[in-house]
Amino acid sequence: MTPGATMSDETLSNLLHEKRTFAPPASLVAAANVTQADYDEAARDRLAFWAKQAQRLTWAEPFTEVLDDSNPPFYRWFADGKLNAAYNCVDRHVEAGKGDKVALHWVGEPLEDTRDLTYADLQREVSKAANAYESLGVGAGDCVAIYMPMIPEAIVAMLAAARIGAIHTVVFGGFSAEALAARVEDCGAKLIVTSDGGYRRGAASALKPAVDEAIQKVEAVSPGQVENVLVVRRTGQEVAFDPSIDTWWHETVDSASDQHTPEAFEAEHPLYVMYTSGTTGKPKGIKHTTGGYLTQAAYTHWAQFDLKPETDVYWCTADIGWVTGHSYIVYGPLANGATQVLYEGTPDAPERGRWWKIIQDYKVSLFYTAPTAIRSFMKQGDTVPASYDLSSLRVIGSVGEPINPEAYVWYRTVIGGSGNGGEGTPIIDTWWQTETGATMMTPLPGVTAGKPGSAMLAVPGIEVDVVNDEGVPVGDGQGGYLVVTSPWPSMLRTIWGDDERYVDTYWSRFKEQGYYFAGDGAKKDEDGDIWVLGRVDDVMNVSGHRLSTTEIESALVSHPMVAEAAVVGATDPDTGQAPVAYVILRESAGDGGADIAKVLSDHVRSEIGPIAKPRQIMIVPELPKTRSGKIMRRLLRDVAEKRVVGDTTTLADAGIMDLIAAGAATST
Ligand code: 6R9
């Protein structure tokens, strides 16, 4: 806590008062997958509910025990059952007569560069890749690192690993050689699957050189660890090729047999490791296993999108290198036999309407994206999406950050306005984490009236709460820490190679209660619905009041000139900390005028009160973000406190900090 500041009674002040609600469209309610009865059923017997959801999967050997909680927090789900994840995502749909159903409508970034893969195609491709992996000496328990653009082979590479019981770790294609090397080394990968490059922003970018560099780094500490590199030819660009370690996908995989018998693995067999950067220290390898993970990914994908697999076309814009790509591009949708779009490139290539054109062309009905994307479209204005037919949409989702109420309303009206026969498209605001594996909180589209900015309530079978410093649940209208109060099927099992860090990071804060500490602040509103308020590390203390950055940001975004805002607490001699805001204006606002800082500061005062009024407001062209679109407030705090800016390796665009720091130096 800041020296001199005193702790208020409230764990987190509750500032913003958003009262709008959006009821589910009648047509959706009439045929909804999930109803109130499902919540009631799950509340009566949570474990029986999950045992029933696990029947969405095909088990080679049935489980007899649902949850083994004999050694907390090392929980095990469905532990004596056996299954194969790839079989569940691919083969069983073919066996059920759905081989001709399109699994992937792949859309490359260059126009007209498209490819459809049916479930039967996927079965052949995954089988070939699995055979190729085995011929390269990869087997159950080995680790395969995947560093690829958004092409079908990325999904094939993941499923081929799962099929033979190998553990995959997908590293985002935008990460540096250094970040790749650290992950490859930490999980002990012996095979790296990559491509020559991919298309982004209208041009071919390279990936293979980063792999070559990463291998040199790994060799220096762990000689001989990486045995093979499998390279997909995507762009045809020249790449260095070392035949002693490199193999072309189109030779090794394409020549392999398309027949492969999947072996069943124990439900607790590791499926993948996904690295997530902590605020400090080395990235944590989050370990997920097979049966529980697949159960919750499949159930939540079906429930939250109200998926009708025979008619819906689904599209999640996440990158495969983010957990959202794992659960809601690969495992959830494919386990459910869905048809989905997979898009390689950026939203504005070759023009700003690209995403909306894809929705129109493929009649996308279920759409899942992040607040950062929604705000960037909001910045551009309504005219671009207005020129496309978006009436196929039924349910639209948000994930990654709290969605500001104004961005929510824009998303609902401008993107979702014509959906459901003009009744409008419900938004599912899904709260979850790499660690939780699948959605934990969201309003369900056929049951709950949505509140802009609130993830609202736990999905059936999940138990969350908001507690104070002592671990006692807060009352309605109060804020505190978001916790999960009982184990769930898709939970992380540990941090790869570091059980102690797993226990310390997630289970020591509320050890006595046995609660999982999510690291997010949250509040309960007067109805008891939950609003996530961002990471507790970002909470600031102003004159003894603990304020969430999210609420001040949302107040700023509710001004018609503002598209995006980031707020940080900077050290202040009078108040301990004071809010400093970085704001991106909408294009329609021009430069905002000479008194823009005062206008916005007065707006915050009138929306939420004088305590939250920013000490300084800076207009900036962009904000520092991670590759999954989260604002990196830590770096903005460095600028606000006039420090040297810290580690920027996980930024999507490192140059942005120079721009912001230069602007701050000249502003008053
Ligand atoms: C899936 C994903 C997890 C953190 C999480 C929280 C934030 C995600 C949110 C949300 C408010 C939502 N977050 N979804 N905050 N409302 N709907 O994002 O995983 O990259 O591990 O990030 O993201 O702060 O703790 P991950």
Protein architecture, described:
By secondary structure, the chain is of the alpha/beta class. The strands form nine sheets. A seven-stranded mixed sheet has the order 5-4-17-16-18-19-20, sandwiched between helices. Ligand 6R9 is lined by residues 276, 323-324, 398-402, 429-434, 455, 518-520, 532, 534-535, 628. Ligand 6R9 binds next to α11, β24 and β25.
Radius of gyration: 24 Å
What is the 3D form? globular
**Ranges with pLDDT <50 over ≥5 residues?**
1-9
Q: Biggest β-sheet, characterized?
A: 7 strands, mixed
Bound molecules: ligand 6R9
Give the fraction of residues assigned to helices: 25-40%
CA-CA gap between termini: 27 Å
- Strand adjacency order, main sheet: 5-4-17-16-18-19-20
Count of DSSP-assigned helices: 20
Q: How many runs of DSSP E, i.e. beta strands? A: 30
Name the beta content range. 15-25%
Mean pLDDT: 94
User: Structural class, from helix and strand content?
Assistant: alpha/beta
